[in-house]
């Protein structure tokens, strides 16, 4: 008798890994590429936030400039991914390779050619590309000249960029994500990284609570319009395109069973996780957003047909990043609740990574259920993984058992979610090859199955080495998630 609970990952499940151009490619000024906002970010650390420098010549070390040099090593890298048996590879196109200033009259052919080559290489090994159109790498000129996404002109620049890449790659790329972690704009740190909005203060990328929500939500509205227009256009260019949203999902738990805590957790879930996907999946702002805007005196400047545009540009699938969960408390007494209200309150049942990110595989199952039964459309987990310090042993091995444990437990919970009925179609772990951290600009916060010889000061050969997790993930893919 077949055990109904012996459900497996679907046979065409998309196993793979994820990267972003600005953290991975390097070649920041090669092939006609213009500067992107990531190119003016300094390295920070666990405690010191990254900063935006006024000019590129400021002489500080810029981790994103050379990153890990995928730009020159893509063949070698893709071969390694193929060796692990990757079915899918999530990557982004650097907007400023295609339109160096964002508002140029013509696209840069050399930039397009680079991605022709990358996609051809993926095709050679039957690896499905999943392309993020904008991943924290808006052309810098659009930030300086227009103040980023606050300015509605960016919608047209973005849609034109989409038009160019959709047509160019229409027969080779099927899966597209319009904006990486679009809900970053519901948080202060997203102002520059996601919104390309110039900071007025000291240039810190941080959780500055005194920032301006009016500006962030207006910029977010422009991204919703841009995303919806891109979805519509993409489907006109190729009706088989699958275009998705991408949300940084933070799982919020109430610290206690006090109804005030429970309600607060739901409100945070709504505002920070679901506001964006409600607009992108259902095509309209949810009621709680309208209430929030009213209470906070936020006036979104909408054009007459914006509602229609949002309705016509609903995404085909939902994707998200998942790393951790956090607790929230309505009690403002930080001493009593044992934590910092704005940074999140520790969960006594969970351990955290070296960067303080609380490891919670079951939270992934909870999240998958939470998302699926709200939207009932296919879901992909497009980022998940453990940022950790790896040690290369004298014999050259890298024994990252902690990473294997983290991923194994999360994969088990994805399986449970599939049993729960969730339509999960893919899993791409973050930073499958070590790359620069978005949050801190560090190299030592590594996520990969493949080690890159490069340190925080930019030293190292950039040579690639297989970690223990490389062989483990290869087996996971080979057995379609059975042998964990
Ligand atoms: C997500 C971003 C990625 C990535 C990841 C890990 O928010 O989409 O770009 O870097 O988080 O974060 P970090 O690099 O700060 O460890």
Automatic annotation (TrEMBL):
Keywords: Glycosidase, Hydrolase. One of its GO terms (molecular function) is beta-glucosidase activity. GO terms for cellular component: cytosol. SUPFAM superfamilies: (Trans)glycosidases. It comes from the Bacteria. One of its GO terms (biological process) is carbohydrate catabolic process. Belongs to the glycosyl hydrolase 1 family. NCBIfam families: PRK09589.1, PRK09593.1, PRK09852.1. This is 6-phospho-beta-glucosidase. It comes from Caloramator proteoclasticus DSM 10124.
């Amino acid at each position: 008798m077949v055990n109904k609970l012996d459900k497996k990952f679907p046979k065409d499940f998309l196993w793979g890994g994820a990267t972003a151009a600005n953290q991975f490619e390097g070649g920041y000024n090669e092939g006609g590429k213009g500067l992107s906002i990531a190119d003016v970010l300094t390295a920070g650390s666990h405690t010191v936030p990254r900063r935006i420098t006024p000019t590129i010549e400021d002489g500080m070390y810029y981790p994103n400039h050379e990153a890990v040099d995928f730009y020159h090593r893509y063949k070698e890298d893709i071969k390694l991914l193929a060796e692990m048996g990757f079915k899918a590879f999530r990557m982004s196109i650097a907007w400023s390779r295609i339109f160096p200033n964002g508002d140029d009259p013509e696209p840069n052919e050399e930039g397009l050619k680079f991605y022709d080559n990358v996609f051809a290489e993926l095709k050679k090994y039957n690896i499905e590309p999943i392309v993020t159109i904008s991943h924290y790498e808006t052309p810098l000129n659009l930030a300086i000249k227009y103040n980023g996404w606050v300015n509605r002109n960016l919608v047209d620049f973005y849609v034109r960029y989409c038009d160019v890449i959709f047509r160019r790659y229409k027969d080779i790329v099927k899966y597209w994500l319009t904006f990486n972690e679009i809900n970053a704009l519901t948080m202060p740190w997203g102002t520059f990284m996601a919104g390309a909005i110039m900071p007025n203060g000291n240039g810190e990328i941080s959780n500055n609570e005194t920032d301006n929500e009016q500006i962030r939500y207006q910029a977010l509205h422009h991204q919703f319009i841009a995303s919806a227009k891109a979805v519509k256009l993409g489907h006109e260019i190729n009706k088989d395109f699958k275009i998705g949203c991408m949300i940084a999902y933070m799982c919020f738990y109430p610290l206690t069973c006090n109804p005030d805590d429970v309600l607060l957790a739901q409100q945070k879930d709504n505002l920070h996780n679901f506001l964006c996907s409600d607009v992108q999946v259902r095509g309209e702002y949810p009621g709680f957003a309208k209430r929030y805007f009213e209470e906070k005196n936020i006036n979104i400047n909408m054009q007459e047909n914006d509602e229609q545009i949002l309705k016509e540009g609903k995404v085909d699938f939902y994707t998200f990043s998942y790393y951790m969960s956090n607790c929230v408390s309505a009690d403002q007494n930080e001493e009593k609740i044992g934590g910092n209200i704005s940074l999140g309150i520790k969960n006594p049942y969970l351990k955290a990574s070296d960067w303080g990110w609380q490891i919670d595989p079951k939270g992934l199952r909870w999240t998958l259920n939470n998302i699926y039964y709200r939207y009932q459309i296919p879901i992909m987990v497009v980022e998940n993984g453990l940022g950790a310090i790896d040690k290369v042993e004298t014999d050259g091995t890298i024994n990252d058992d902690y990473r294997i444990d983290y991923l194994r437990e999360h994969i088990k919970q994805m399986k449970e979610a599939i049993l729960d009925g969730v339509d999960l179609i893919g899993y791409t772990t973050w930073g499958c090859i070590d790359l620069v951290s978005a949050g801190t600009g560090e190299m030592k916060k590594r996520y990969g199955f493949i080690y890159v010889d490069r340190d925080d000061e930019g030293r190292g050969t950039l040579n690639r080495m297989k970690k223990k997790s490389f062989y483990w993930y290869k087996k996971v893919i080979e057995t379609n998630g059975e042998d964990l």
